[in-house]
Amino acid sequence: MIRIGKLTDYGILILTHMAQDEARLFTAQEVSLAVGVPLPTTTKLLKTLVHGNLLDSQRGTKGGYLLARRPDQISMVDVVTALEGPVGLTDCGTAQHPGDCQRSISCAIKTNWQRINQAVHDALAQVTLAEMRLPAVHPVHLPASRANLLRV
Amino acid sequence: MIRIGKLTDYGILILTHMAQDEARLFTAQEVSLAVGVPLPTTTKLLKTLVHGNLLDSQRGTKGGYLLARRPDQISMVDVVTALEGPVGLTDCGTAQHPGDCQRSISCAIKTNWQRINQAVHDALAQVTLAEMRLPAVHPVHLPASRANLLRV
DNA sequence: GTATACAGTACCATTATAGTACTCTTTATA
DNA sequence: TATAAAGAGTACTATAATGGTACTGTATAC
Question: How many beta-carbon pairs below 8 A join chains A and B?
Answer without folding.
Answer: 215
